[in-house]
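PROTOCOL LOG
Step 1. Enter all chains and additional molecules of the complex.
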Amino acid sequence: MSTKRVYMDHAAGRPVDPRVLEAMLPFEGSFHVNPSSVHSFGQETKQALENARVKVAELINAERKESIIFTSGATESNNMAIKGIAYRNKERGSHIITSSIEHMSVLNPCKFLTTKGFKVTFLPVDQYGFVDLKSLEEQLTDETILVSIMYANGEIGTIQPIKEISQIVHSKNAYLHVDAAAANGQAPIDVKNEGIDLLTISSNDMYGPKGVGALCVKKGVHIEPIIHGGGQEQGLRSGTEDVPGVVGFGKASEIAKKEMWAESERLMKLREKLIKGLIEPIPYSFLNGHPAKRLPNNVAVRYSFIEGEAMLLSLDMMGVAASSGSACTTKTLEPSHVLRAIGLKHEEAHGSLLFTLGKQNTEEEVDYVISIMPDIVKRLRAMSPLTPKELRD
Amino acid sequence: MYSEKVMDHFRNPRNMGEIPDADGVGNVGNPVCGDMMTIYIKVKDNRIDDIKFKTFGCGAAVATSSMITELAKGKTLEDAMKITRANVADSLDGLPPVKMHCSNLAADGLHAAIEDYYKKQKAGKGA
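Step 2. Run joint prediction.
Step 3. Record the structure below.
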């Protein structure tokens, strides 16, 4: 086992920024206080909650803090947006459009709605993962109430042209929901400028605590709540708010707003170096996603003739944590739907490897990963019956 | 996730490689599920004299391939045919439940190699 510990799996989980933790601590101590209470304890807590709401709103340039509805994370936000718009607008229409590379927390609510009388169109994407705008235009009808397209894809890094998509969607008077969980904190999201009606963001994706997220709902856009109860969050999300979590989310948003540009620039340099170092010295290696229009921290590659989980175990033996879209690493035993949607064959998808960089990663760590990868690929290719003769020893 | 034994076989696979003049070859698996395996055997006096494997797949696929070569080596063909998927998994101190079906192909690979040997023998006699 290696003594080195290199964490490059930030899409799966990020460490909480120490400054975020510090901001949360006073509220962990008064965890019992309910922000809806009239007494001064409650009012102080309420104030902290509202301050956090302002910070989150500022990060994405929401028109007002009331647009921010706190949730338990991106999965809940996506469910709330999709079901909330569908239930509220079913008199107007029953058609929803999404893409074939969305997160499961978008795809599965859409599939669920097909059992409730809604029609869902899953748009194809090209080899880079860009949504086909022409087929979006063709599929939009007067019946279409919602289009849900992700800001960027966490598995292949591709960033969608949201502003263009928004113009198309609004020309047909449908609502646009954007799942930005993979992109928030890395991409300068601007709901006003980009014309986003509903935006999903999550806290852990920007070094805040897990279990907290938000749905930003534009003023004048109405959704049906999916959780009913005491009427918190303007009646849209009942249940006492997780105050320490929300305060941490607010602090994480504030830090992201301040540091995002410099950090993204740093990550892009590391990204380019890692991509080059993982592909150039190794034959039959490829980049997944678009070379330029990709998340600053996303390095998605694939190697022919070998399988992703075996690569992950080999990397882990050398102290490196990464991820893969191979069937062997999923609960469903199917290769990633994203990699299949961009046109990869099963065996190509199985050979995928995903490194997602973060704040703590250094150039030295990137060099280390580059230095160990050729031997890992070589060893597994020596074992594989698929490896062509020319690559053997 | 994996037992120490699985990891040991993944780190140091036993009998990995090909036998160019094999008496029997077994190919199992498919690229859709992500595991493909080739088992090569050399037979002498009705016993498995030498056995090698090549595997495309996850850690469990590699470890079960490696383990089956240890289990089968030196056994009579009849005894080797009796080795089951469960035997392989047990010898590795178990496999995660999801891996029991998709990646535990090694026994099938061994049986396919033995059947290939029998087929070749029959064909040889007929000629």
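Step 4. Note key features.
Chain B touches chain A at residues 2, 7, 10-11, 13, 16, 27, 31-38, 54-62, 98-99, 102-103 (CB under 8 Å).
The domain at 4-121 of chain B is CATH 3.90.1010.10 (Sufe protein. Chain: A).
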